[in-house]
Amino acid sequence: MPTQPDVDSLARAVLLGAFALSAVFGAIVHRTNFCTMGAIADMVTMGNATRLRQWALAVGVAIIGFGALAAGGWVQAADSLYATPRWMWLSALVGGALFGVGMVLASGCGSKTLIRLGAGNLKALVVFVVMALAAYATMRGITAVLRDRTVDQVFVTFNGPATVGHLASAAAGWPVPAALLGAALLVGLPLTAWALAGRGFITGNNLLAGLGVGGVIVAMWWLSGHVGHLAEHPETLEAAYLATRSGRMEAMTFTGPLAHTIDWVMFFSDSNQRLSLGVASVAGVAVGAGLHALLTGQFRWEGFRTTEDLANHLIGATLMGVGGVTALGCTIGQGLSGVSNLSLTSFTAVAGIAAGAVAALKYQMWRLERAA
């Protein structure tokens, strides 16, 4: 059994690894302009699927990678943050739609906010703070009560984790590892093939976006679920996932962690405060994007130009904070990390996010046409 100093050392290694992987993620996204909201906007406004194919490739890689890790026994898929027995379909739909509208108004999701912040965008700093406060209120404050008494009351409970792989195993009687890998290949390979089949898609930039982002998600699952896993913690004598806020295996997500970052900064001297994988990820993404922006000469200070621009970002940030917590994740948390688990709640949240984003983009286009 490891001693407490051994556990502390391993937790620090997990945090440093999460920071490093997130910095790589930040640099890749800044270089390639990978963006879920941008992918939807390109399709709606121009019919251009390039960034949507980047996202599909990243998702395909993440799904196949997680399935391989689970099938090989390197991680326990049932211990994932997204592998709960409840399919929170209404929370995911409503929260996802709010988040989708919000990210259009705020010029990007939580991860994109960190990318822009690292590159000198002060509007992103405002979005960061407001989104974090709205998320905190929806986790523990006034909107948490509203969420708990409404959409969170509607769900479907299964006997095991509500993921495609686990449900297929239960329905067909297949061994869980085989079912997880089979489901991952069945979903991940078509997504990857569709992405790569796009005319002119195979370029260094697009491959870096899809393979790089997807690869980082897989690496985060390995870091949290394998490196940071203790079969028996010396204090509790129970299995534990080190440096995670939830106590379960985690990957990248950027709604709750923004709130936890504010909390960690404000109450740093509190002995009960512990740096978490999510907070390390928030810092890593901003630093990675900032370093890439500085090295490539793209760092620029930018602020609000009009009162309407400020208002849109404030409303958008609030909707993202409320919606992201309600949907149990954002475009990265549910759209990549959760979908890589083939979670039913994650698929539902992605549908809600896409619907909300399309509605907001259509509204903006209607306003522009009306003004013209």
Notes on the structure:
- There is one protein chain.
- By secondary structure, the chain is mainly alpha-helical.
- It has one domain.
- The radius of gyration is 20 Å and the shape is globular.
- It has helices at 4-32, 36-46, 50-71, 89-105, 110-118, 122-140, 142-149, 164-172, 176-196, 204-227, 256-266, 277-295, 307-326, 333-340, 344-371; strands at 86-87, 156-157, 229-230, 240-241.
- The mean pLDDT is 96.
- The protein is 69% helix and 2% strand.
- The relative contact order is 0.24.
Briefly characterize the structure.
The chain has helices spanning 4-32, 36-46, 50-71, 89-105, 110-118, 122-140, 142-149, 164-172, 176-196, 204-227, 256-266, 277-295, 307-326, 333-340, 344-371; strands at residues 86-87, 156-157, 229-230, 240-241. By secondary structure, the protein is mainly alpha-helical. Belongs to the TsuA/YedE (TC 9.B.102) family.
